[in-house]
Amino acid sequence: MSGSGVVKVACVLVICMVAAGVEAGISCGQLASGLSPCLDYLKKGGAVPPGCCSSIKALSSASKTTADRQAACTCLKTLSKSYTGLNLGLASGPGKCGVSIPYKISPSTDCSKVT
To answer: How many CB atoms are located within 10 Å of the residue 104 CB?
Structure first.
């Protein structure tokens, strides 16, 4: 997979794992890069890697406002539609890392309703 492919897949992971949101100052590309340690987990399952949990926690704590969470949701949703091979059923990753997410991570999530 090319470098840009990894970034896109990472964004999909974010959809699956970070629905808690990201600070508005973080771009979708930065979000994807930060969550790249989660890619194998979203494809193959198993234990959530420690680096993935660290990234999820950091991104979750950066979510300060509804707008931040909606922006993260939109980024993740858009990118998740671009890739195949990810098991969106593994989107419970944030819970496995001790992070609560305010919405279901899914390509069908209405991000405008995220609070």
So the answer is: 10
